[in-house]
Amino acid sequence: MSGLGGGRDKPPGPVPLREHMAIDVCPGPIRPIRQISDYFPRRSLGGDPAQDGEGAGRPPAPLETPPAPGPAEQGYDADTYDSDDSTALGTLEFDLLYDPDSCTLHCTVLRAKGLKPMDFNGLADPYVKLHLLPGACKANKLKTQTQRNTLNPVWNEGLTYTGITGEDMARKTLRVSVCDEDKLTHNEFIGETRVPLRRLKPAQKKHFNICLEPQIPLASPSSMSAALRGISCYLRELEQAEQWELEERGRILLALTYSSERRGLLVGILRCAHLAAMDVNGYSDPYVKTYLRPDVEKKSKHKTSVKKKTLNPEYNEVLEGAGGAQGTPQFAEFFYEIDQAELAQKSLEVTVWDYDIGKSNDFIGGMTLGPGSKGEGLQHWLRCLQSPDRRWEHWHTLTNELPESSAFAP
Asked: Structural domains in the chain?
């Protein structure tokens, strides 16, 4: 008996669902809300937590699900260390050298160690593949020979990109991936690493001995809030759209000279490199066309000869008025008679096509030099105008953008 009324205590009733959920879901003290920076950890070189923004003498609070480093960190930190330690995927050793005089990027693939077994016999048939990002496509893919039945292949093989400018070195990243060749099924991916070209010093060889990383996936939903997942999807779609708009189809080496004596523009077509393959045999039959726009009378078209079955054509040919003795090979050179002041209002349109018999020729890539150009393209055009009687050579990137004036002029 208890209480003033002398009645028995009532048995406790069931806990309301709302209170029950609050007790089960939120045990213990309330944790602080995570910030975006928690998903992108930064490690100092000295390893001092105080320098990482966590506060002196206080270790960082652990996350329930530690996020994996993002693609930028995996790529940009790849060349900050060397390692011979074995990993789940293996290690890769290679050298990189950029020659600014010849605009070439040399990659010497040396060897790999401890690669992941990919075949039933516990071995693999590895080869190395290179891509330049952004703009990775078949046009800029290079690959080594395949080494059979080994997890410790030795290549000692050199791969060279031609037409790499200083602008490319500032903004592009070299993706180096190791794959296993399989003749019966699709080739299998083993591991990769990414090297920002801006970390290379001109004319200085840099050695890499690094651990291979898995293919970079999207961040898992368990380690991202709904807002971050949305941002990630948006950025990926934006990147894909930009890559489509700026898809690279190869390089072209042009020589521009304004001749004050002849009062006109000389356009030299020297060579192309790493063109996109348009035929089923893995090659193209490329030729180059040039226009000076606007072209009211439609008389400015010039065209080189067709080079058969090649992605790296050199336009050395015998041309009348090319400047050399008869029978001496010269590069293709076209002349536009025009005043220098009038030329400043014009644009030079250059397109590369794949010649096909019996059907329409395929567009490979194009570019435009003129007042509306940007970056190194604009600099090349201005040098030609401001310094007459001097020959200016420069490599330019071909893209999939088809100029309107060339759309129906094969």
From this structure: 72-211 (2.60.40.150), 248-406 (2.60.40.150)
